[in-house]
Every structure is written in structure tokens, then in C-alpha cells.
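User: Hand in any protein.

Assistant:
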Amino acid sequence: MDKIKNLTERQIGVLKAIVEEYIATAEPVGSETLDKKFNLGVSPATIRNEMIRLTDMGLLKQPHTSAGRSPTPDALKYFVDHLMKTKDMSVADEVAVKEKIWDYRQEVDKLLREATKTLAEKTKALALTATKDGDLYYAGAGNILAMPEFYDYELTHGLLASLDEFDFWWKLIEGGVDPLEILLGEDDMTSKGFLSQCGVVFHKFSTPHMSGAIGVVGPFRLNYPYIVPVVRYMGGLIDEFASNW
């Protein structure tokens, strides 16, 4: 995507606004909305022209039934890599999460089960934990049904059916090189067609006795600025507790 390197400041501003609005609403975004809600400092006509250019670059797409545009996976990747400012968890939130799993810190199975459940509650997404031993925990399957993208039966069926396939998820997680990984329509995700429309955020943990990862799955417009710090914190907690096993 060499074109992305040549984005102007104005195009970056328009793209950032569209991604943020799309994350919030799951609806294609029109130039009028951008003009009213974001102080971009240019006319609606200029915004429209920039949206056309961003579409030509493959960063926006226009659904047939809408005058607005929505970001492509490439746009989301650019946002996550270059534009996103994460919203750190409050101390109160960190304490609440730690308290939820504190009582289970000496029991591996119960800790991972409770951590997965807590992560699903905090992120309102589908939470997953996989360990190298071959265990796969998940919670929050009902959360995805509240997201408009998952009104699509085939997409939802594909995602839920994959929860029986440990090997698929472990291969996806194991391939990551950083402690925290964000996957958006990656090549190794598209072997499952449905995942090309999904976002995955996970944090690896490693102890002398066990290694694995905990994270969330949802539409590729996941609220990354909020979700990334929560996943990172939960992965860190498991590392902290597991160091005493």
C-alpha cells in the first residue's frame, strides 16, 4: 500500500474521522456528518473530494445502498498503526478487573475461565483464551449478536463454529511475534472466510509451566482504542499471577 505513505494531512484527518465515526456507529459515513461532527476546517465539497480520493486508494468503500462510505481493512490497519490513541484504563477499572480474578490466582483452569469471562464483560465482545496445552476457553458469544455485522447468519455461524477448532485459533495466535497483536483480515485469517471481516486483539502470556494468549474477536471496527489497553492489562495480570505457580 505505497499510496498510504503519500496521504496528505487533510486526507489523514478525513480518514481518521471516518474510522472513528464508523467504529461508533457501524454505519457508512457521509460528508455532511463529517462536516457537522468534526472540525476538519474545510468545506463539505472538499471533504467529498477527499473521500473520493481515499476510495480510489482502497481505503474507503461505498456500499450500494448508501451515499456514505465505510473504511476498508487497510484503512483500519492504518488507523491502528498510525492514528489511534489508546484510552488507558482508569485505576478503578484496573482494580475492579483484578478483584474479579484475584480469588482464582492459584488455580490455572479457574483463573483462565474467569479472566476470559471478565474480558468479555469489559469489552462487550467475544473473548478467547488458548493455551499451548490445547485448552480453548471462550465467553461472550452473545455479545456479538448485538453487533450489526453479525446479523449476517453465515458470518455468525462461521465464527461460532470455529470455537470448536482449537488448532485454527492456536495457529493464528502462535504466529504473532509481539506480546500484543492486532489482526485485521490477515492472510492466515482468510482461510476461514468469515474472519476476513473480523478483528482480533490478543496478548500472549508465558510461564515456566504454560504459555498461551487471551484476547477478543469481533467485527473489524472493534473499538481498538478502548479494547487494546484492557486486553494488554488482562494478559499482564495472567503473567503476574502465573509467575507464582
